[in-house]
């Protein structure tokens, strides 16, 4: 292309297709002739949510960077269809993300039964598998013991006759060495089988505890407990391999509030676990009249809690750590209402989910 010399500068500035332009979205330099194709793929170019969600603006006006669309759909879009978290347990419901909280509340007991059914099935399968392995290991141990007994008898016979002729003595010593080698090999096999049995038992314990991330706690004699202001503790339960207890204080600081706490207990696997422990916890006081209107409290252990209350989350050195939870879960008058207290008893569900270390 030929131009008058006086027009070259203007051409280079305003109309040359090869001039470098700055993309206003990603701030990269792009040739003018390639700008439109670039905008079709620019990761910083604003595009609407495919579901036309209204988060952050009027309906259909939410603008996202192109690169953020998949993350938005995966994590936050309220109109994105998602599977129920209990899909793996048999709940085949799919719905918009914004409806999931309501679904989880309305189907809480169904989800609970599904998860319990799945846990029992896994326990049965695991128990059968481990029983088969135990039976096989037991048979092998019996066989090894019989072989040891047989070789021991042979060794005794060899020793009885070892003082015969020198030729016989030499032959018998060779047999003795062979027998000793076999015995050592058999001892190694027994040691190996003992180790396998220990591993099997650890797997059994692990499978059982990993399935119990929550506690359904029925507490009787509530009125008397409130009057006596006595602390109440649950039976131990496991989250992963962490041993825990629930704790209720019926009149925290004499302010008429019921406090609910989680105590991390000293367990047999503490040396294999990560400390300090982090977790998300939910306390649910079941409503006996309307199961869709339970009384709930949810929180999680963050960096501030770890720094301010380290004794609650460290590896226990005594029987258990200080409890951590809420000092004002509900008033000790409201908890006695008929919808929560039936025949002087309440049911408290404690759910715990382990979180990654900070």
Shape: flat
Q: Tell me what the CATH architecture of the largest domain is.
A: Sandwich
Give the class-level CATH name of the largest domain. Answer: Mainly Beta
Per CATH, what is the topology of the largest domain? Apoptosis, Tumor Necrosis Factor Receptor Associated Protein 2, Chain A
Strand content of the residues, in percent? 15-25%
Total of helices: 8
How does the helix and strand content classify structurally?
A: alpha+beta
Mean pLDDT figure:
85
Could you give the distance between the termini?
A: 62 Å
State the total count of DSSP E strands: 15
Find the CATH superfamily of the largest domain. Answer: Apoptosis, Tumor Necrosis Factor Receptor Associated Protein 2, Chain A
- What is the radius of gyration? 35 Å
Q: Helical percent range? A: 25-40%
User: Unreliable stretches, pLDDT < 50, 5 or more residues?
Assistant: 203-212
Oligomer: single chain
Write the element-wise H/E pattern from the N-terminal end onward: HEEHEEHEEHHHEHEEEEEEHEE
How many domains? 3
Brief account:
Helix content is 39%, strand content 22%.
Describe the structure.
The chain is α+β, with helices and mostly antiparallel strands. It has 3 domains: 5-41, Double Stranded RNA Binding Domain (2-Layer Sandwich), CATH 3.30.160; 111-210; 214-354, Apoptosis, Tumor Necrosis Factor Receptor Associated Protein 2, Chain A. Helices cover 39% and strands 22% of the residues. It is built from 8 helices and 15 strands. The chain has helices at 8-14, 35-41, 69-75, 100-106, 108-160, 166-210, 222-228, 303-308, and strands at residues 20-22, 29-31, 46-48, 63-65, 81-83, 94-96, 214-220, 232-233, 237-239, 242-249, 257-265, 279-285, 295-300, 324-331, 345-354. The strands form 5 sheets. Strands 8, 9, 10, 11 and 14 form a 5-stranded antiparallel β-sheet that branches. The protein has a 4-stranded antiparallel β-sheet with strand order 7-15-12-13, with no helix packed on it. A two-stranded antiparallel sheet has the order 1-2. A hairpin with a 6-residue loop joins strand 1 and strand 2 (29-31). The chain is flat and about 125 Å long. The two termini are 62 Å apart.
């Amino acid at each position: 292309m030929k131009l008058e010399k006086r027009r070259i500068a203007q051409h280079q500035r305003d109309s040359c297709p090869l001039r470098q332009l700055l993309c206003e979205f990603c701030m990269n330099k792009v040739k003018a002739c390639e700008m439109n194709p670039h905008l079709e793929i620019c990761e910083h170019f604003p595009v609407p949510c495919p579901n036309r969600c209204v988060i952050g603006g009027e309906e259909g006006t939410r603008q996202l960077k192109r690169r953020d669309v998949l993350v938005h759909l995966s994590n936050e879009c309220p109109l994105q269809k998602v599977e129920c978290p209990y899909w793996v347990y048999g709940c085949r419901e799919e719905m918009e993300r914004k409806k999931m909280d309501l679904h989880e509340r309305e189907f809480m007991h169904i989800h609970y039964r599904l998860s319990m059914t799945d846990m029992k099935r896994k326990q049965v399968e695991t128990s059968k598998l481990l029983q088969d392995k135990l039976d096989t290991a037991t048979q092998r141990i019996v066989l090894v013991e019989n072989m040891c007994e047989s070789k021991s008898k042979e060794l005794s016979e060899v020793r009885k006759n070892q003082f015969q002729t020198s030729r016989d003595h030499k032959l018998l010593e060779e047999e003795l060495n062979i027998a000793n080698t076999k015995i050592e090999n058999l001892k190694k096999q027994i040691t190996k089988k003992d180790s396998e049995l220990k591993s099997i038992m650890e797997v059994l314990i692990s499978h059982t505890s990993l399935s119990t991330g929550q506690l359904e706690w029925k507490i009787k004699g509530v009125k008397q407990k409130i009057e006596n202001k006595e602390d109440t503790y649950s039976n131990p339960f496991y989250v992963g391999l962490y041993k825990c207890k629930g704790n209720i204080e019926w009149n925290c600081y004499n302010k008429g509030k019921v406090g609910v706490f989680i105590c991390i207990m000293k367990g047999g696997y503490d040396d294999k676990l990560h400390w300090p422990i982090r977790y998300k916890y939910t306390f649910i006081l079941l409503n006996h009249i309307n199961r869709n209107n339970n009384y709930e409290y949810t929180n999680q252990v963050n960096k501030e809690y770890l720094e301010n209350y380290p004794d609650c989350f460290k590896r226990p050195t005594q029987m258990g750590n200080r409890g951590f939870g809420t000092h004002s879960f509900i008033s000790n008058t409201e908890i006695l209402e008929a919808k929560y207290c039936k025949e002087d008893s309440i049911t408290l569900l404690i759910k715990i989910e382990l979180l990654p270390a900070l």
